[in-house]
Amino acid sequence: MSIRHVFRPAILVGALLLCASSQLAATETPVPAGVTGALEWRQLGPFRGGWATMAAGVSSRPDTFYIGTAGGGVWKTDDAGRTWHALFDKQPASSIGALALAPSDPNVIYVGSGQVAARYDVGAGNGVYRSTDGGRTWQHMGLDETRHIGRILVDPQHPDTLLVGALGHYFGPNHERGVFRSTDGGKHWQQTLTINDDTGIVDLAADPANPAIVYAAAWQVRNYPWLSYFQPNAGPGSGLYRSSDGGVTWKRIRGHGWPTGTLGRIGIATGRGGRVYAVINAAPNSGNVPHAASKDQGGLYRSDDGGATWQLVSQQGWLENDYFSRLTVDPNDPDRIYSAGQSIRVSSDGGKSWHVFKGAPGGDDYHFVWIDPRNTQRMITASDQGAVITVNGGQSWSSWYNQPTGQFYHLAADNRFPYWVYSGQQDSGTVGIASRGDYGAISFRDWRPVGGDERDYDLPDPADANVVFGSGLGGRVSRWNRQTGVVQNVTPWPVNSYGQRPTDFKYHYTWITPIAFAAKAPYPLYMGAQVLFRSTDQGAHWDVISPELNGKRAGAKNCDGNPTTAEARDCGYGVIYSIAPSPRSNDEIWIGTDDGLIQRTADGGKSWHNVTPKGLRAWDRIDSLDVSAAQAGTAYAAVDGHRQDDFSPHLWRTHDDGASWTDISAGLPKTSFTTVLRADPVRTGLLYAGTDQGVFVSFDDGDHWQSLQRNLPTAWVRDLLVHDNDLIAATQGRAIWVLDDVTPLRQASAAIARAPAHLYTPATTVRVRANENKDTPLPPETPLGKNPPAGAVIDYRLAHAARGPVALEIRDSAGALVRRFSSADKPAELDADRYFAKGWLRPGAPLSAAAGAHRFVWDLRYARPQAIQYGYSISTSWDSDTPVTPEGPMALPGTYQLTLHVDGKSYQAPLKVVMDPRETAVTRADLSAGLAFSQEIGKQLLQVWQNYGQVQAVRKQLTALDDKLAGDAAHATQRASVEALLKQTAPLVSGSGENSMNLRAINDGLTDIATDVEGADRAPTDGQRQVVAASEARYGKANAQWQQIRENDLAKLNQNLRSAGRTAVKVPEPDQIHQEASEESEDMP
After folding, report:
1. How far apart are CA 192 and CA 216, in angstroms?
2. Which has the closest alpha carbon to 528: 470, 572, 591, 452?
3. Which domains does the chain have, with CATH numbers?
């Protein structure tokens, strides 16, 4: 193998291609903003909690709690953790480091953005936020450059007076760190404690009896671009400070038992009687590095005199942690203290002895414990898996399987229908989740672990959907079998080097171990360390197909010390971070490293070319590479510089295999770094970019960008995947989301935007039912992901509001009308006995005639049959998914013609409907038989409904007439005729049994059969046909009796009534019956 450098002066062909591309971009008009207006993201799930960083409760409202999360914003529960709802989705920050409620007014909430656990991947913030209405609305209060805030203290009596402990930038020096004080709710700030540009405040605590006495824990910490766990998170700036005037002035605590060496992270807590606790990380680090924490200084320290003197009370190893540690003292007992770490431990003797209070194998990693000062049985904890609440002192806890706050990394999907999405969740493991649930929504039934490790890749084998390969910490690769659940370790070199100095191991890895399958058979699997591995037998054997592809150089210095970024690159600390096999050829592979290089091979790894864009710095991490399937030579790169304290976007494009590159970041927010860039496989030049603030789209190959955020909550979008017609997003803190059917993006143009109206050509629609559940529906409190639309997604755009109703016609291939919709349609008033809450109902979704982009879903059904009485399906889920039954019969697979009528003009588009690929046994003859049978039932139902409406209308008039004639002896003969008619018509509206002529009973039997027939893609059964035939016979008898009554006895009565000068009894015509029948309805939905 050889490795060569491609010189940056582009070859002539590359220059010509670039020039042509630039000229094309200059002449095309960008698609204007607004074409995305009808698109909505839906949350897939899973509802498994992610990292919660901070928590608080409201003593006066025992069921109310709040949490801050590492990447999912702020959440609130009003039912002690049974359900949670997001409060922060629209704010421009999603990582939360601090959260505090004003003790004197719990509606006043302060949030400090940016978590303070200095691990590899950390979400940053932009200062402080304030709410005065319990989190319904927020105001940004500044301190933008603090970036990571560790703690906020609010004065117990004055909700506008507060202290903010800011850690500052993780990846570089800055001044805006330390303690900040405000006395006007954050409108103005005073920086009252400044240590140096490398040291900030990670924790604050106030004396519960005298809040003017405050303690501040300072931490000197720096994260490096590489996985630097072997390097110290310590320095001479770390220490403890005390203020006796509410944080106006500060004095550093020294001596008198306080450790004298170099310290790391410090967690502090206060209790009654001047008690102060401090847990100090000072474990020695390996290697000859400066600022290593002093040996034997770490542990739990206690002061009983307000910080004047200290004693070391415990050095149990689990107490201290190099990047997270918190303490909480029981508000009523200063000797009872809780330590949040890998588990929650509690001491009842002032920290001398401890026992596990809460924890599980694997380590939940707890970050905070809040205890209600009024009732210490009420507690909430924040952990890697979310937040849980106890109201009985820890005997039982609420669930974290109701918080969609997981931090997800990389995405993959299989080719099943419905397809499944695979990803790794930080601190919780892996997920395979269905993109559509069979039971109307995506629930706990529709996802499962798939064998890999947290946060890495999980890839279904293209040759065998029952096998999923996952990567993990320290270069681990696993093979999971869906049928057996067995997980096999197939790591190329099973020596775990995770978090260790790279120079000490043969192969080394960073936070992420990338794996990728080739696009073509036999689908070799690739895995990245500092070299590229390849396996062609599902991991049984691996070959190294590259030299070291990082920036390693001979003669590097300081490799075993604390190197600079340049030295670390020369030492070979860098690894492969992204792998992009070409969709065109298995011989073409692109890789990106975390130390800022892009390498390419066109011969299966025999030779490699450095094709890094000019201007990339050492340790600009190549987060993603995407090789175009449609354009030879075209590739895209997302470069992330935030680990070098550069939060600006960096996106690159090449059209000549990397010989030259164009920076295509212009137009993206200048303070939002980029982590993924994907090219749409259908429309050339359609690009999707993910940043730490959301999603963006370009229609012109990256020359211009616009937001694609829509309803997606603010979150770091770690990966994007285009699968079929959908765009999938993995977020760091808000789980996995899907933008269903990006057809409008693929067809959008400036010409469409200028047109008075436009009907997009819909994507091929799979004929699938919305919900197959036949069991009791899940309770409303059960968290559910949303299903994609069940039916044909029809997008259209109106430049201006229509002057009249907008109509949509759907015709089959023979031109027969299947369905017609209008913006003038009113919700149908159906007689259905609703015995449940309205929240279960499926709302109507009429066409819109307003200006803008619109999305309408045709459920692939003909019009609902007319019936006397309707029912509700048990196939439902909470929040608008309960259909009235029977529904109309489903249309057959085939091609349909759509026609949109707007202001006298018509716009047409074809629609293709295909069969559910899982239905392999059904034939078109079966489907045609089912449709014909359903339509036959519909005709019967219409006749029954018409007769029933006529009979009821006549009986209503007869009853009123009978009341008028009562007691009038002169009209006794007429009254007798009226009563005889009421008796004659009674069997048509009452009675039961299979021989009954009760039209309502006949209706009910037919609607039951119609619902059953439409419940499956099968030909009608003999039993169904026989029952319908019997119902038809019963209706024939009932109709004959009704016609005899009309033509004889009723006609005679009317003749007598007219002779007596009275109004005759009217039999309504069919078009008058709906109003009459509606008056009989008792409970309209």
Report:
1. 11
2. 591
3. 96-365 (2.130.10.10), 765-915 (no CATH), 924-1079 (no CATH)
Closest CA to 327 of 228, 430, 202: 202
CA distance linking residue 125 with residue 120, whole number of Å: 16
Residue range 1032-1058: average pLDDT? 95
Q: Which of 311, 286, 370, 297 is nearest to 65 (CA)?
A: 370
Instruction: Give the CA count within 13 Å in the CB-facing half-sphere of 503.
Output: 18
Could you say which DSSP state residue 655 is in?
S
For residues 492 and 472, the answer to whether their CB atoms sit within 8 Å is: no
Look at the pTM and tell me if it is higher than 0.85. yes
* Total length of the chain: 1085
pLDDT digits (tens, 9 = 90+) for 837-879: 887 787 777 899 999 999 999 999 999 999 998 888 887 777 7
Q: Which residues of 592-618 are buried (b: 16+ CB within 10 A; e: fewer)?
A: bbbbbbbbbbbeebeebbbbbbeebbb
The vertex-285 CA angle with 454 and 359, nearest 5°, equals: 40
Contact in structure between 633 and 17 (CB atoms under 8 Å): yes
Residue 287 has pLDDT above 50, yes or no: no
Whose tokens are 């008619």? That residue is 981
Contact 507, 493 (CB under 8 A): yes
Residue from 108, 100, 82, 224 nearest 151 by CA:
100
Asked if the bond preceding 843 is cis, omega within 30° of 0, the reply is: no
How far apart are alpha carbons 1062 and 1039 in whole angstroms? Answer: 28
456's tokens: 């890495």
DSSP per position, 380-438 = EEEETTEEEEESSTTSS---STT----BB---EE-SSSS-EEEEEETTTEEEEEESS-T
Q: Measuring CA to CA, which residue among 59, 66, 70, 63 is closest to residue 103?
A: 59
The per-residue DSSP string of 85-109 comes to: EES-TTSS---EEEEEEETTEEEEE
**Partner residues linked to 690 by β-bridges:** 676, 695
Pairing of β 2-5 and β 607-610? parallel
* Count of helices and strands (H, E) across the chain: 10, 68
d(CA 493, CA 541): 10
Stretch 692-699: mean pLDDT, rounded? 97
Q: Is-contact 576 514, C-beta < 8 A?
A: yes
* Contact of 115 with 97, CB cutoff 8 Å: yes
- 506 burial level (CB within 10 Å; 0-12, 13-18, 19+): exposed
The alpha carbon of residue 732 and the mean position of all alpha carbons in its chain are separated, in whole angstroms, by: 10
CB 66 within 8 A of CB 73: no
- Residue whose entry in the numeric block shows the structure tokens 């409108």: 187
Across 134-144, average pLDDT? 98
pLDDT in tens, 229-264: 888 789 999 999 999 999 999 999 999 999 988 999
DSSP state for residue 1017 in the 8-state scheme:
S
- CA-nearest of 344, 217, 356 to 276 is 217
Kindly list the distances between the CA atom of residue 1030 and the CA atoms of 951, 996, 1019, 1040, in Å, as whole numbers in the listed order: 22, 11, 19, 15
Strand intervals (E) in 611-768: 621-627, 635-640, 651-654, 662-663, 674-679, 687-691, 694-698, 706-707, 716-723, 726-732, 736-739, 757-759, 765-767
pLDDT at residue 606, rounded to an integer: 98
Asked if the model's pLDDT at residue 9 lies above 50, the reply is: no
Mapped onto helix, strand or coil, the DSSP state of residue 1047 is helix
Which residue spans within 799-834 are E strands per DSSP?
A: 807-811, 817-822
494 burial level (CB within 10 Å; 0-12, 13-18, 19+): exposed
Q: DSSP for 445-497?
A: GGEE--S--TTS-EEEETTEEEEEEEEEGGGEEEEEETTT--EEE--SS----
Q: Where does the pLDDT of residue 971 fall: very low under 50, low under 70, confident under 90, or very high at 90 and above? A: confident
What DSSP string runs through 948-972? HHHHHHHHHHHHHHHHHHTT-GGGH
